[in-house]
Structures are given as structure tokens and as C-alpha cells.
């Protein structure tokens, strides 16, 4: 994987974007049929409920290739993070209903931006910085130190604070109390115990961390997704605030409210299945 990152990284420096993206997709094709079989099979099982099943092997092949190609382009686009500026971002991204996040920010308690491994969530984070908002992102450290440093360097180029899981709760609370936005990917459990929910009628686990933070800090939760539309641009959609309803017991409160997030997540995955970058197993068999 580190060789893949290294190769794509250099494509971004020496080739025009259309050429680099073309080569990136061809690399993805090779990986699809050779090195990435397990991830490919997991991906197909993950999106199958979202599209109502595959009608043929041909459709399965086409959807699988779309997913792996889209992820490869996402990796390439991450290299371009330092090149995104206030004067050029509108060529690549369009914020939709951003006033929802802006109004939440005015409350002075920070904002939890809840997103998913969907589309280009990294560019979505950059958009918040380019719009002038202080931002921290919670992420995991890769087993490969090169990849960890690679990602951190790109994020810090946009003055995005990086908080690693393990110390995430403390770091996130500090950021929220300072009035910052904190972006969290909320469709995968990394460290803490997850809560079982149903999406597309299938059981999976979602992290309770974002909702626990909201209860501790009083920070509003705004779901947001950066997905590529037919115009070739990323439309960054900001959903209405998830209002936290209290049920007395903390665990019960989180369990009841996380279902709201599951429904929003389901809506976006169904709409953009080929942009859902989950290559691990999602569903509980």
C-alpha cells in the first residue's frame, strides 16, 4: 500500500490532473483484479443492500470497478489538498446549506461535523478551513508510519489540527471548548464499543463517540457529506442539526439518537454507493 501511495504521490507532482487521474484509474483496475481481491469482495457485499442486489455479474463488475476507481482518485485528490485555496476552491467544491453549520457555530460551543467514508471527506474538511472556520479532525494512525506522516503533512498544510484516536476524547473536548469545529468519520468503529443499528435492514455497528461528546460538551452535531456530482465537482451537503433527545440514561440516550444518524447515513449511501469507501466488512452476519 505504501508503494501505491508513493507512486500516486509522484503522479500528482509531474502530470496534469486529467492524465494523472486516467493513470490512477488504470492502476485501480490492476489492483481490482489482482492485489485487492479481499477489499473488492468486501466492498461489493457492503453496497449490495444499498442498490437492492446485483442484477448480473456484469453489473457487479461495473460497480466494483467504479468503487475502486473512485477510491483511487480520492487518494490522488488528497495529494492536491495543499493546492486548494480561497480563490480557486469553487472550481472544485460547492457548499450546500452551509448556513446550517454556520448557525450552529454561532452558539459558541463548537460544532461536531459528522461525516462518513463517502466521497472526498478530506476535501470537505478543507472547505471548512477555507470558509474561515477553525477545525480539528479525529483520525487513526496507520500501521505504516510513512502513510501517517503523509496524511498529517497534507492536513496541516491547511492548518487543520490532527487528533489521533486513543487521545481523541480529551483532544476533541478541548477543541470544542475552544469553539472549534471537530470533524469525525462516523460510519466505522475504530476504538470504542459501537452501538448496533440497522441500515438497509442489515445490522452494523456505529461509533457512539460523537454522541457522547455532544452530551459532554453540549456541542451541536451537523452531518455533512462531500460527494462528487455529475458536474465533476464535489457538492458538500450540510444536513440539519441532529437534535439530541434525552432519555435519562446516557447509553439509552446515545442509542436512541444514533438511529437518527443511521437514517441519514443510509440516505447518502443509497444515493452514492460507488463513493462509499468501505473495503472492510460492514454488516454483522
Automatic annotation (TrEMBL):
Subcellular localization: Cell inner membrane
Gene Ontology cellular component list: plasma membrane
GO annotation terms (biological process): glycolipid biosynthetic process
Keywords, alphabetical: Acyltransferase, Cell inner membrane, Cell membrane, Membrane, Transferase
Pfam families: Lip_A_acyltrans
Matches recorded under InterPro entries: LipA_acyltrans (IPR004960)
Domain of life: Bacteria
GO MF assignments: acyltransferase activity
PANTHER family noted in UniProt: LIPID A BIOSYNTHESIS LAUROYL ACYLTRANSFERASE, PHOSPHATIDYLINOSITOL MANNOSIDE ACYLTRANSFERASE
Protein's name according to its UniProt entry: Lipid A biosynthesis acyltransferase
Native organism taxonomy: Bacteria, Bacteria division WOR-3
